[in-house]
Amino acid sequence: MRIDDRQHDQLRKVQVENNYLIHPEGSVLISVGDTKVICTASVEERVPPFLRGQGKGWITAEYAMLPRATQQRNIRESSKGKVTGRTMEIQRLIGRALRSVIDLDSIGERTIWVDCDVIQADGGTRTASITGAFIAVVHAVGQLYEAKKIKSFPIKDYLAATSVGILSESGPMLDLCYIEDSQADVDMNVVMTGSGEYVELQGTGEEATFSAGQLNEMLSLASKGILELIEIQKETIGILAEKIGNE
Amino acid sequence: MRIDDRQHDQLRKVQVENNYLIHPEGSVLISVGDTKVICTASVEERVPPFLRGQGKGWITAEYAMLPRATQQRNIRESSKGKVTGRTMEIQRLIGRALRSVIDLDSIGERTIWVDCDVIQADGGTRTASITGAFIAVVHAVGQLYEAKKIKSFPIKDYLAATSVGILSESGPMLDLCYIEDSQADVDMNVVMTGSGEYVELQGTGEEATFSAGQLNEMLSLASKGILELIEIQKETIGILAEKIGNE
Amino acid sequence: MRIDDRQHDQLRKVQVENNYLIHPEGSVLISVGDTKVICTASVEERVPPFLRGQGKGWITAEYAMLPRATQQRNIRESSKGKVTGRTMEIQRLIGRALRSVIDLDSIGERTIWVDCDVIQADGGTRTASITGAFIAVVHAVGQLYEAKKIKSFPIKDYLAATSVGILSESGPMLDLCYIEDSQADVDMNVVMTGSGEYVELQGTGEEATFSAGQLNEMLSLASKGILELIEIQKETIGILAEKIGNE
Amino acid sequence: MRIDDRQHDQLRKVQVENNYLIHPEGSVLISVGDTKVICTASVEERVPPFLRGQGKGWITAEYAMLPRATQQRNIRESSKGKVTGRTMEIQRLIGRALRSVIDLDSIGERTIWVDCDVIQADGGTRTASITGAFIAVVHAVGQLYEAKKIKSFPIKDYLAATSVGILSESGPMLDLCYIEDSQADVDMNVVMTGSGEYVELQGTGEEATFSAGQLNEMLSLASKGILELIEIQKETIGILAEKIGNE
Amino acid sequence: MRIDDRQHDQLRKVQVENNYLIHPEGSVLISVGDTKVICTASVEERVPPFLRGQGKGWITAEYAMLPRATQQRNIRESSKGKVTGRTMEIQRLIGRALRSVIDLDSIGERTIWVDCDVIQADGGTRTASITGAFIAVVHAVGQLYEAKKIKSFPIKDYLAATSVGILSESGPMLDLCYIEDSQADVDMNVVMTGSGEYVELQGTGEEATFSAGQLNEMLSLASKGILELIEIQKETIGILAEKIGNE
Amino acid sequence: MRIDDRQHDQLRKVQVENNYLIHPEGSVLISVGDTKVICTASVEERVPPFLRGQGKGWITAEYAMLPRATQQRNIRESSKGKVTGRTMEIQRLIGRALRSVIDLDSIGERTIWVDCDVIQADGGTRTASITGAFIAVVHAVGQLYEAKKIKSFPIKDYLAATSVGILSESGPMLDLCYIEDSQADVDMNVVMTGSGEYVELQGTGEEATFSAGQLNEMLSLASKGILELIEIQKETIGILAEKIGNE
């Protein structure tokens, strides 16, 4: 049994509070166990210079943690005067993943800014960010669609993410919490679509390696978890769910 | 009547969620109308270099807004690579105000880091931050006290803050929301103690000035509001309230 | 008696050297006791992006100290690579104060850059900067007026500033020098117009508080001092003085 | 056939110039087709603060491109004043990969700084960096070993990397050059050991996704390529090769 | 005799590898003894803002060292977040020197970016950079000329540079290597044209001074060395050599 | 005749105000024509890390301009967040020049910080800075000597600097003002000692070159001017003058 009494293939409890903030076009507070992330989607009526005049849109993401989201207080990146390598890796991942299921041609010359701010961290903040950000983007895009600013619904498929890992004593596990993550030999983040295709695989064995067999076990746990996350997304999204992948 | 149907001397609805996060020694989510701020207090077992070896403590504060706390998305200060002048003014104010009611000698060689992160903004974010941060600090200091790491309870008095202002058509008003604030001729932030003493007065008439009479009207509104805020603090703090100012 | 033999309501000796530099449109060297500030006003024939096309002007201020203006050498902000919070607070204050007595519509699409560079510091550098900068701006605006680049004289009133404070042993005092300032319990900067209206009030009790009675005593000292400073401004400005507030 | 007449499972021509520079403890110039990287390994007789006093060592990597390594000149990161997200991702990857095959306990309180400077880029710069950096580290560690500064040879296994990808018209391919990389739907970087274990998998489908079947095809191409790269490493390393994995 | 057995008026061995890289319009790898610099010239079809619309071009240079070009590893300037004073001095010198022999009017509204990246350092890196950069610029300008993008050949004269110095025990010397340079009392960099005119003289006696007589001895050594360097440039440049100074 | 009616070998009017500021150990306001520089020397009782424990001292210099020292307002380097290449070149030159005439062993483990702040610029600011900084350093060192903190007077010789240049129509000239400097084909800064030895020579022909004959004419003008500047230094320094070079 795991530290929090879960089965090795069991997700933590997932909760999504829709429209969590009044200003953004889309926003959720997603909780995956004790990990809590505010995900917002903001629509800006222009695109970055490299896309101007092409009639297509852009999605970009930023990620941050409150200083005391963690056990030990972190120094703010604004105080450091720069964004760390870890933050950059995560925000590039989130943006890239979202762009794989959204038809940028259909959103017109607009940028969707996704902000994932972790207010409490207990492992899996980047995958919770992707799962929550997808819903926030659906809300924001839904507003554009209802206001008839865009003609077709540009979300081609669902998108969710989770972590899997291998602990030397307990074997492969789904959805690692912080303590599990810090003890894992291998850690893999998987991003998948509703139709079961891979979008991103990032497997790392720091001071350890993994075999082809272990890779397959981890991928199979990840599939199971992501399909469950997508069921939760469907319920949360409500009526817009039927538009996804249908236009 | 005001835009949100309040009387000119009426605060917005104030709510405080105690122990909002699991990691910090003290934390609250304070709402003043639609303004929402996560205030945390973190205890670090050392002081900045200029205080080392003197046996006394330090309190410092940081303030930030989520990018989409506001109507228009703000660029993150970490992306800009620097903290703006407005942010620096506010965090210096919060730290200075808290230090006026806390006996730094009694907390030993510790730093209390206060973080005020605005997740939704509708005017008065700096004063809500002070009012909420005071409670978070009481929780954090209470932990030290209960663990017998400090001998006497170092909080000398209550501390709360509000804004007052003058709108050319409607006269002086208490606790401005964003729309009122953006139309005000004069804007004043007042920080006071439970015994009614001033800690900070910051009155500004950008492109306008104010007379001694108007100053007095604003100060009197501020006093009324701050005493009400301190009543709310007392209820929130619970049993620790009786320690404040009594050691 | 005070450390420099002044009465509690007595300003230090104030001297203004007009047109101190050859290049700027307006410049003075102001001395308030041993505090010496070079204040310049530079006219730029364009406005910041947020004002373009509106036919109105802008005034902005920057403040700095030479490294050895002070007892201990300060590290240059250019070497640090950033402007400190204290500097930002002061330059925002100077700009805001000047904008309150100048009709920005009358100066056309121009920016007036005010630079206050402290070459020697003995307390009260920010208030000496405001008092001196006002004169430099009058000179610069006078040039525009004489060259008929602007139609009406845009200075609506005089503007000067001083500090007041409370020392625990000696009570309230006007125009603190550095030693007094470092011993004061309460420190207040007051900016006023020639007609006696407040423009800015910034009262701070770090590790101390102040009562309504003490506030009134300080405000009354400040009024006396500022009116004396404005008399000195009038003499310095000469013939242009009659234009102020008359158009 | 591919743009440069290779088979889909064929590496580009790989050349390694050993001891390319006179100053570093280890250095190579590695060419993989037209991609050329100078890889150096520098030994510093101390570790970062978080490791001091633990008797173990550290390996860290930095990566950069000359401004004109690419078709279009890039702005230097030193001129920008910051390191980009892409660079940070790559240097974190290189360091992490090397640490997986080196016994940090055996190198003592030393840091091995790995520098990978791309002087010419034609795709696959990060994987060429890893393959070359491994050899440079072996040289540097060999010096320590021969000087008897370390007791056992700390390299546990070989390490090499390559890229694989899927082009919509041509299917899966090994070792993409720049043109292939820019047309690929899916791009995956694989880092493996001499014993065929995975160290890192980074698969990305920007604006595309990939199935489990495609993943397997890519992994199998990667294995073939990496084993060939490791043969080249063995030849290059010479006599030290027999020490790897044998202590 | 000198440390490397040279005569006091003898250059180190100079080698130039033409067209060293595939992407830049001009590139060389120049070796002066153990000092090795990759010099590239990149043509950009626009000029900096201060020159736009004037029909003339610009040449600018950047200089950097690989971290392990030197005996001790240097921290990258991109990691420091800023360019050092030494680097700025050198890149300003290289750009200024090149502009003295190139007719900026003849190259049209183009910028030639010169990049000098030291891959191995043994003294004289700035003068080797100038000597090599001149050749790279000739190649790049030759391409423009052959493509008939410019009408006349804009190189007015040859340009090369060397260092001279005085060692207290051995007297004046030509082309100092690193050990000589670190022991020299006086160090002078001289940039000259093919017709023997001075372009730059930078003589420095840190903790020492030099007389008029010593100055003359150093200038005469420098002349001799630079004329030899220009002969090497002529051979390297080949057919384009006859265009220099003839249009 | 020159623009300001000087002979080609005539310096501008030089004035030195001794002990210009109350806080620094040494300070002057030097005027060379309309160029005015505040030069201060500050004594710090420690040395930079690379010199600790060696019993010798250090001299370092910083240089800056007030934003409106010039015809057009300059952006502050603190606002830009970095020091420009020009500033770095100048402050390195000033420090290096001063170190050549001061015996660092005799000042003990102290740093002398020299600050040259240009309050008005009309050409020759770097050479005026050196000439003025020398006097400020003599004052600061004199204080140490009188307080018997150092045993022997560490100034070995006088040090002054001037500029010379060649204007195409008027030939070689001494001490260029801004207009002359901006029209000059060749510009040379010369730093010399009281005994007529060179300390620094920096000759530059941007978009022009100069012959050996022109070099000699310029050097001879520079010698004449520097000897006159040293006479002015002697008068200013007063009684301490007899110590220079005599211990």
Topology record:
Six copies of one chain form a homohexamer.
Chain A: E1 14-18, E2 26-32, E3 35-44, E4 58-65, H1 77-80, H2 85-99, E5 111-120, H3 125-146, E6 159-167, E7 171-174, H4 178-183, E8 186-193, E9 198-204, H5 212-237
Parallel strand pairs in A: 4-5
Antiparallel strand pairs in A: 1-2, 2-3, 3-5, 6-7, 6-8, 8-9
Domain Exoribonuclease phosphorolytic (chains A, B, C, D, E, F): 10-140, 157-225
InterPro entries (chains A, B, C, D, E, F): ExoRNase_PH_dom1, ExoRNase_PH_dom2, ExoRNase_PH_dom2_sf, PNPase/RNase_PH_dom_sf, Ribosomal_Su5_D2-typ_SF, RNase_PH, RNase_PH_bac-type, RNase_PH_CS
Enzyme class (chains A, B, C, D, E, F): transferase
Top keywords for this entry?
about 250 residues; alpha+beta; Ribosomal Protein S5, domain 2; five-stranded mixed β-sheet; four-stranded antiparallel β-sheet; about 30% helix; transferase (chains A, B, C, D, E, F); EC 2.7.7.56 (chains A, B, C, D, E, F)
* CATH top level label of chain A: Alpha Beta
The sequence of SSEs of chain A as H and E is EEEEHHEHEEHEEH
Structural class of chain A: alpha+beta
Shape field of chain A: globular
Poorly predicted runs of chain A? none
Main β-sheet of chain A, in a few words? 5 strands, mixed
Strand content range of chain A: 25-35%
Helix content of chain A: 25-40%
| Tally of alpha and pi helices of chain A | 5
What is the spatial order of strands in the main beta sheet of chain A?
Answer: 1-2-3-5-4
